[in-house]
Design a protein that fits this description.
Strand content: 5-15%
Largest sheet: 5 strands, parallel
Number of strands: 5
Strand order of the largest sheet: 2-3-1-4-5
Helix content: 55-70%
Radius of gyration: 17 Å
Structural class: alpha/beta
């Protein structure tokens, strides 16, 4: 039996690290074999590309350069980590995946969605996440959380307008695929956010078991 693939999405400061801790506890309680990974990154080469993408620099990063670097990292991630794990029956939990590309490089940067669809078909194929948890939080709250970070990256430092586009982009993605993308109100307390995540995980597990 192949493993399940769950991605976590959300704007800056949406609380993905806290959500990941909650999911790890649930997986261990359920005795499910899993790996945690992230995008861009997940392998040695992909992590090197991540550093290129996110590092602050004086040189302006062309939008197409950013997009292609993201997909180059994703291609390596898919071939070396995600697909092998799924084939072995291991669940894969990824901090960001394809929806982030559509939102950041598509909606927020004004990128060509046709190009994004073609790259996705080429690099990801049919291996999209079985489920995506979208941590939705007002931009004002997310940026307050980001301000507490010691090491803000290049995307953290984008304008408020950019981050508003990111939030709306994620909500549009969720509207396009409501059966896959489940919205979590991440503006609430950690306990309430965790409770929402657990409801979704248990619901998904039950649905998948019925389809076995």
């Amino acid at each position: 039996m192949t493993g399940k693939f769950i991605s976590l999405e959300g704007g800056e400061g949406s609380g993905k690290s806290t959500a990941i801790a909650c999911i790890k506890t649930w997986l261990e309680t359920e005795k499910i074999d899993y790996i945690m990974t992230r995008e861009p990154g997940g392998t040695v080469l992909a992590e090197e590309i991540r550093s290129l993408v996110l590092s602050s620099r004086d040189e302006e990063v062309d939008d197409m350069t950013e997009l292609l670097l993201m997909f180059a990292a994703r291609a390596q991630h898919m071939s070396q980590k995600i697909r092998p794990a799924l084939k072995q029956g291991v669940w894969v939990i990824s901090d960001r995946f394809i929806d982030s590309s559509f939102v950041y490089q598509g909606y927020a940067r004004g990128g060509d969605l046709d190009i994004l669809n073609r790259l996705t078909k080429w690099v990801v194929g049919t291996d999209k996440p079985d489920a995506t948890l979208l941590l939705d939080v007002p931009v004002s709250i997310g940026l307050q959380r980001v301000a507490l970070r010691k090491n803000a990256d290049r995307l953290d430092k984008e304008s408020t307008i950019f981050h508003e586009k990111v939030r709306q982009g994620f909500l549009e993605q969720a509207a396009l695929e409501p059966s896959r993308i489940k919205i979590i109100d991440a503006s609430q307390s950690i306990d309430r956010v965790s409770a929402q995540i657990l409801v979704q995980l248990n619901t998904l597990k039950s649905a998948w078991q019925r389809n076995v």
